[in-house]
Amino acid sequence: MIKVVIAGIRGRMGKTAFEAIQATEGMEVVAAYDYKHEGKQFDGADVVETGGIPFYSSMDQLVQETTPDVFFDVTRPNVVFENVMEALKHQLHIVVGTSGLTEASLDQIRAQAEQYNKNVIIAPNFSIGAVLMMKFSQMAAKFMPDIEIIEMHHNQKVDAPSGTATKTAQLIQEVREPHTQGALGEVEDLKGARGADIEGMKIHSVRLHGLLAHQQVLFGSAGELLTIRHDSFDRESFKQGIVLSVERVLEVDQFVYGLEQILLQD
Ligand SMILES: NC(=O)C1=CN([C@@H]2O[C@H](COP(=O)(O)OP(=O)(O)OC[C@H]3O[C@@H](n4cnc5c(N)ncnc54)[C@H](OP(=O)(O)O)[C@@H]3O)[C@@H](O)[C@H]2O)C=CC1
Ligand SMILES: O=C(O)C1=N[C@H](C(=O)O)C[C@H](O)C1
């Protein structure tokens, strides 16, 4: 039995992860790591007095009392790094769904994982369709290197650009020579109108009620346009990748950034 502790369990993705793990044979959620609700429990929907899994704000106590194997984080960009470093110190394997980790933080996590000989999977997006969208975009970028990424999310998302858009841009950077796009000497009359810039490639973030998680990658070339688009309409779309990550983190080679490294190796 793989024993999992979830950080962020009260949130939208935490609840999704809880449902996915509890519904899967061979794995179970044994604890919630949280800065609130010490001594209380979580029943899948709400914080309750009894009848759920326990909340802990002390990792020492959590590990002693529930002996988990895997630390699963879906919290906030400003919290995830500290959580992961603490969990590695406590000899846990790590799965991260939280967005917003910088390259410097990723390097530090990799080093800490090596030091403690633990495995880490960082999954910018758990949806299989989204992983394919990112890989297909990388393939297309080789042939059509003028690119704009438009990511669209619900209006409660706190970070921009999304982890998925950042990862997409990084995959594309592996095959695309940096170059300026658009007209020479182009001017923004309104600051931000052309979006964020990574080596000349543009990223635009849309936040609106009614959206969940969507991305389209536009490839322009003389007389043609290719659009690669993915939509998550429901958080169900993340469950397969969540379960896969929890299973595989026990056996992967220490540090994996992006589920494509697991899916496309099988
Ligand atoms: N990889 C993927 O496929 C996906 C990743 N995500 C990412 O997951 C993250 C969470 O998203 P989402 O669930 O929508 O956000 P939510 O705001 O719904 O959930 C975050 C939760 O984390 C809690 N939290 C804050 N600080 C801590 C802490 N120190 N310890 C434990 N819990 C804490 C918050 O509690 P409180 O509000 O009380 O502070 C909140 O309940 C985001 O970074 C998002 O981008 C989302 C969907 C898919
Ligand atoms: O906040 C979200 O909702 C999502 N966050 C992740 C991201 O930043 O890419 C994954 C997915 O897009 C949903």
Automatic annotation (TrEMBL):
Say if the entry is tagged with keyword Zinc.
no
Q: In which pathway does it act?
A: Amino-acid biosynthesis; L-lysine biosynthesis via DAP pathway; (S)-tetrahydrodipicolinate from L-aspartate: step 4/4
- Where in the cell does this protein reside? Cytoplasm
Q: Which residues form the Dihydrodipicolinate reductase C-terminal domain?
A: 129-263
EC numbers, comma separated: 1.17.1.8
Q: Which domain of life is it from?
A: Bacteria
Q: Does the keyword Transmembrane helix apply?
A: no
Catalytic activity, as annotated: (S)-2,3,4,5-tetrahydrodipicolinate + NADP(+) + H2O = (2S,4S)-4-hydroxy-2,3,4,5-tetrahydrodipicolinate + NADPH + H(+); (S)-2,3,4,5-tetrahydrodipicolinate + NAD(+) + H2O = (2S,4S)-4-hydroxy-2,3,4,5-tetrahydrodipicolinate + NADH + H(+)
The record ties this protein, via PROSITE patterns, to: DAPB
Q: Which GO terms describe its biological process?
A: diaminopimelate biosynthetic process; lysine biosynthetic process via diaminopimelate
One example of the protein's molecular function in GO is:
oxidoreductase activity, acting on CH or CH2 groups, NAD or NADP as acceptor
Q: Could you tell me which residue ranges the Dihydrodipicolinate reductase N-terminal domain spans? A: 2-126
> Gene Ontology cellular component?
cytosol
Q: Which residues bind (S)-2,3,4,5-tetrahydrodipicolinate?
A: 154, 163-164
Stored InterPro entries:
DapB_C, DapB_N, DapB_N_CS, DHDPR_bac, NAD(P)-bd_dom_sf
- Active-site residues annotated for this sequence: 153, 157
Q: Which UniProt keywords apply?
A: Amino-acid biosynthesis, Cytoplasm, Diaminopimelate biosynthesis, Lysine biosynthesis, NAD, NADP, Oxidoreductase
Q: Entry's NCBIfam families?
A: dapB (TIGR00036)
**Free-text function comment from the UniProt entry:** Catalyzes the conversion of 4-hydroxy-tetrahydrodipicolinate (HTPA) to tetrahydrodipicolinate.
Quaternary state and partners of this protein? Homotetramer.
Describe the family membership recorded for this protein in Swiss-Prot or TrEMBL.
Answer: Belongs to the DapB family.
Can you say what this protein is called? 4-hydroxy-tetrahydrodipicolinate reductase
**Organism expressing this protein natively:** Savagea serpentis
Q: List the top taxonomic levels of the source.
A: Bacteria, Bacillati, Bacillota, Bacilli, Bacillales
